[in-house]
Amino acid sequence: MLIDLHTHTGYSYDAAPDMPQKHVDAAVQRGIHVLAFTEHVDFFRRESLSAADFPAGTVDFDGYAREIAPFRRGRMILPDLSAQQHDLAVCREQAGDSILLRAGAEFGQPHAAPELANQLLDQYSFDFVIGSIHQMPDDMDLYFYRYETVDQSSFLHTYFDEMEAMLQFGRFHILGHIDYPLRVMKLPHNQPSLRGYMERVDCILRKIIAQGIALECNTKGLLGWQQAVGPEDCVLRRYRELGGEYITVGSDSHAPETIGYGISQALDRLRAFGFSYVTDFENGQAIQHRL
Ligand SMILES: [Zn+2]
Ligand SMILES: [Zn+2]
Question: How far is the CA of 252 from the centre of ligand 2 (A)?
Fold first, then answer.
């Protein structure tokens, strides 16, 4: 059973402009059985940022000003969720039994504006929400740090502090790409890894298990320098050892061409690590599909 629980359509600010129907067509063509749309909803602590908020040279502020700032409406990046959910309903009707479509969302650091996140969660009904950390406590996206100027160890500790704060907020079902910083921290002399941070990872894994939150296996790393499905072996192994049962797979696709990319490899990997089920969510309830 092929499942892709992490994809972005043209409703997400950073995705290709194609609307949901094109994604559904691509997914059906590739034999995907369950597909979820998880548009970006990001939350910020402050109304806006200026270059003067950052020590000179530590971030690519022009990149932020070009690629993030125009999409912010104060403390949120908020896609048109009503229109998106309407499109999804139309897609469901047209698709019939050929594919199961889930209404998801990817909330970036919802604890940064918990009152706004709570409002959205009360207003819209989602099958599930992915909780991810995209921005640091200074509201800058991980993508725009200049890592040659950053102490990587303290940066990762801050990242995990943010994840702990998000877990305390708690209103989400899947922990998205726990290894996200590794995608962007690569430098010529440095192969970043979570191996040196397993104490932090351990704590987080224990908490998600206690809270019934699933760990995500995200295949986007296959297309980056890592050339591998995340998270690293040490993280998956530890999750198994701790008794973690809920695990989802997602391509983090931002265009119809990459829907389902790497999903069969991800499922093989889960089998190799001894998982018997892959997790899906409907109306907030976990569904375990046998691997
Ligand atoms: Zn993400
Ligand atoms: Zn995503």
Answer: 5
